[in-house]
Amino acid sequence: MSLRPTLDFLLHQWLGVASLQLRERFADHSRETFDAVLDTCERIAREKYAPFNRLVDTQEPQFDGEKVILPQATHDAQKAYAGSGMLSAAQDYDVGGMQLPYTVEASANAFFAMASVSIGSGMLTTGNANLLMKHGTDAQKRVFALNEFNGRFSGTMCLSEPQAGSSLSDVMTRALPDGDHFESDPLGPRYRLKGNKMWISAGEHELTENIIHLVLAKIPDEHGKLVPGVKGISLFIVPKKLVDTEGQLTGERNDVALAGLNHKCGWRGTTNTLLNFGEGKYPVRGEAGAVGYLVGQPGRGLQCMFHMMNEARIGVGMAATMLGMAGYHASLDYAKNRPQGRPVSTGGKDAAAPQVRIIEHADVKRMLLAQKSYCEGALALELYCARLVDEQHTGAPEAADDARLLLEVLTPIAKSWPSEWCLEANSLAIQVHGGYGYTRDFPVEQYWRDNRLNMIHEGTHGIQGMDLLGRKVLMENGKGLQLLAGRINATIERAIQVPELAAHANALGQALAQVGAATKAAWATGDPGDALANAVPYLQAFGHTVLAWIWLDVALAAQASAESPARTGRLGAMRYFFHYELPKIGAWLQVVSARDQTCASLPEAAF
Ligand SMILES: Cc1cc2nc3c(=O)[nH]c(=O)nc-3n(C[C@H](O)[C@H](O)[C@H](O)COP(=O)(O)OP(=O)(O)OC[C@H]3O[C@@H](n4cnc5c(N)ncnc54)[C@H](O)[C@@H]3O)c2cc1C
After folding, report:
1. Catalytic member of 148, 420, 458, 581
2. Quick one: which of 543, 417, 412, 520 has its CA closest to 467?
3. Does ligand 1 lie within 6 Å of residue 449's CB atom?
4. Ligand 1 within 6 A of 302 CB?
5. Are strands 210-218 and 153-158 parallel, antiparallel or unpaired?
6. Residue 264 CB–ligand 1 contact under 6 Å
7. HEC sequence for 525-584
8. How far is CA 228 from CA 62, 225, 293, 295, 302, in A?
9. Torsions phi, psi of 602, nearest 5?
10. SS3 for 259?
11. Is 158 within 8 Å of 121 (Cβ atoms)?
12. What residues contact 210, with CB distance under 8 A and at least 6 apart?
């Protein structure tokens, strides 16, 4: 079973991405060039990633005291990825890019996430370099970003610290000006950093010539005190090895040391590290302190970092989706081949009859259809968001601004919904396999372990829920929410004309009204403590409503296509979502609307 027909349908029959070639930036592209990129990535993922997914899980990264050792397969896969040009796919021609729409780039990257998410394809590196292209100086772009796009260097994002995870305002890494002439360094104002960064993905390895860390740190005030809150946070480029203004290694090691590798539940092919900055293990010019170059303005570090985090959040949503999809395909294949049990019929079971394959049992079909509706729905959502990114960058001013605002509202859903529901899909994939699914002889347990990360990193579920209800639906006087409601209503208006979809259109209209009413009720007292006590049930209900909309919109495109098993499957998955999933929002929104304090008010001693 292949992902490609689903991707092609969503890209072309649903989103109509070929029309992007009418825009100046994409004028050299066509369906053929888009297909060629997908073909190449599908092939590299099949040859260099998929066969090694179990290997990178069992051969975890090892630290020999000097170097981190990764399997040769990881080196080969990442080399092939960089060689394909995908690291710079969306960049301008004059910096070596292909000016590919982000929608196509994200689709192409889906193959790698499905084949082996933890070998990694460069999401952090491109995110890091994209941030520098937006906020860096010309020298920072040339020396750091361009060498990330060409695969010489790789990138990280260093936000978290042992005492500062969700609460980044508490970061304690300090940055002090490096000497009297610190401001005149050609690579940017030069500082010395000291502190510890926890959980840093791809923080140490030998896959590339250099590693470019983007580090959040605070510059102390004139009394030597760190400014409380996020306002005091600045952003620095801290290369593992120092470079000159041409991007050549100077031969000096920067004062960044691996304190240890974290041993994870899943996603084991990527190193995860505790890094010590500036503790003096590798003194630079005789002094402890990691050399870092300021990016943008002091105190504006988190705003710059959000540029990377928004992209990373769509990337996380896509990774969660593709892990779910991998489990769906594996369990579908298993269900078609595993004989077990006999059909239930009015005459009872005939024990002498041959066993049927488990896909013939209604409950197994339920588990498969749930997975299909979660994963193909999530894929459509991620591609819709990717298309909004293209609109934001290349659309006419008003459309671009609408896309920006819609992305603000949809990003918490794009990150969180697949992280929860495609993880549930992985659990169902194990269930379809029965006992075999619980062993390491089948791939589905690894998909679940790999996917379990996604509700934790890039903002936990709880933090995303608070971001949605506490900020995104309120921002700019609720304009983002109104815009989204406008898009949902446009789909409803089209679907109501189609007899087969009219009832679903009505159900979606009611769901949207319920979400709107619950948003108002949550904030009725104006007390964030009341409103946000049930932010996660709100996130779940909002997410399910968005997914119902996406499915109805996809169903309109499916309806218009010729009869085929794929068309029947898409309409079936849409019906599953409306019949089995959407009704759940009632329970979630009830506690939101009532500002239910059952959880918030229970005294600690009563637990
Ligand atoms: C494998 C892996 C890779 C990672 N990669 C990176 C990376 O490359 N770079 C990087 O900087 N970080 C990375 N992280 C860190 C990740 O972003 C943090 O783990 C995450 O932000 C949560 O922080 P924490 O672990 O300290 O948990 P905590 O912040 O302690 O949260 C624990 C629990 O408390 C809840 N909670 C916390 N505060 C609140 C609140 N105010 N209201 C309600 N609930 C709250 C959370 O939702 C969570 O359920 C990675 C983590 C992992 C596990």
Report:
1. 458
2. 412
3. no
4. no
5. parallel
6. yes
7. CCCHHHHHCCHHHHHHHHHHHHHHHHHHHHHHHHHCCCCCHHHHHHHHHHHHHHHHHHHH
8. 37, 9, 22, 20, 13
9. -70, 125
10. strand
11. no
12. 147, 152, 153, 154, 239, 240, 241, 243, 249
Report which protein residue has its CA nearest ligand 1's atom 11.
159
Residue 30 neighbours by CB under 8 Å, 6+ apart: 18, 21
pLDDT per position as a tens digit, 397-429 = 999 999 999 999 999 999 999 999 999 999 999
Taking the C-alpha atoms of residue 271 and residue 494, their distance in angstroms, rounded to an integer, is 48
Of 73, 64, 107, nearest in space to 204 by CA? 64
Is 272 near ligand 1, meaning CB less than 6 Å away?
Answer: yes
Name the residue type at position 23: R
User: Does the annotation count 458 as an active-site position?
Assistant: yes
Torsion over CA: 320, 130, 115, 204 (sign): negative
pLDDT at 350: 82
Q: 274 CA distance to ligand 1 centroid (A)?
A: 14
Contact predicate 103/379, CB 8 Å: no
pLDDT in tens, 540-570: 999 999 999 999 999 999 999 999 999 999 9
Ligand 1 site, residue 460, Cβ cutoff 6 A: yes
Predicted local confidence at residue 352, as pLDDT? 87
Q: How many CB atoms lie within 10 A of CB 365?
A: 15
Q: What does the buried/exposed string (b/e) look like for 585-602 if buried means 16 or more CB atoms within 10 Å of the residue's CB?
A: beebbebbbebeeeeeee
**What's the whole-model pTM score?**
0.97
Mean pLDDT of the chain: 96
Taking CA atoms only, the protein residue closest to ligand 1 atom 24 is 165
Residue 28 near residue 99, CB atoms below 8 Å: yes
* C-alpha separations of 386 from 246, 381, 407, 461 in Å: 34, 9, 9, 21
Residue 231: pLDDT band by 50, 70, 90 thresholds?
Answer: confident
